[in-house]
Structure formats: structure tokens, C-alpha cells
UniProtKB/TrEMBL annotation:
Protein name (database record): HD domain-containing protein
Signal peptide (residue range): none
Domain HD/PDEase, chain residue ranges per copy: 36-152
Pfam families reported for this sequence: HD
Membrane spanning residue stretches: none
Organism from which the protein derives: Wansuia hejianensis
InterPro entries: HD/PDEase_dom, HD_domain
Amino acid sequence: MDITVSEDIDSEFLEVVRDILEDREFKKLNCFRQHLKTTRFMHSLNVSYISWCLARRFRCDARAAARAGLLHDFFLYDFRDKQPTRELQAFYHPKVAAYNSTNHFNISEKEANAILSHMFPLGPLPTSKEAWLITCADKICATMELFQLHIALAKPGRVKISAA
């Protein structure tokens, strides 16, 4: 699967997340629906980009915000299927995403904590500015995607994903 990103997307952002975007396992997120017509891949990319923009604006750790935003939903199962635990999806998937991200990408503690808390108030209280930004960006993106409004990188033609 190849990913082509339009030239008008900030190259600095792409440099921060390129290794994740090019990862074979991460690309599998494109096979899962997230909010109606959005894939989990595109949702994660939207959250990442908005988190990165906000972090730069508020002089936070933009790298951590972009990477944790991209990995916040890094779980490779359909959330509508029965889970191996009795936990609700809202509580379960951040743990799986943090576990997968830590093992697959060797993320920082700040990034792992941001992933674990991104479902606040349904999960733990975010403990860093970057975690708060990801939590907010996730809510913004989910709302926009549910209403099928194009935001950030989801604008038609900005990102193309094809099988390779």
C-alpha cells in the first residue's frame, strides 16, 4: 500500500510522522471504518495533523503531539466485534493502542500517556499539554467526520492511499 501526500501539506509535519505512515502494520488501519465514511487511518492522520498544528501554535512538543495523535487509535480490530475483555471499547482501545505503539514504534512515555488518556472524560485525566491537545483534536475530528465535513488532511485529493 502506497501513500501519496499532496505537496501543499507541511513537509515538517510529514518528516515527523513519515516512519509511522510508511509502516506496513499502521497502513492496515485503512481497512477499518471509524466514523461513518472515514477510515481509522484517515481519522488518525486528521487527529495527528490538528494536534501538531495546535502544539506548534501553543509552543508545545509538536513532535510528541503529532506522533501520539497518529497512534492514538492504533488497534487492528473492528471495534464492533466482541472484545476479549468485558471493558467497553472507549476504555479498552486506548490501552491496546498504547501497547501496540510502545511495542511497534518505541514511543516516549509522554506519547504513551497521551494515547492512554485521549478518551477523557471516559478515561484517565490527560497529564500533559500535548495529551490535552490530542484529546481535543480527537473530539473535533470525530465530530467533523460524523457530520461528514472535510477537515485537515481529509480534503479530497490531499492524501491518496493505494495498494502496492
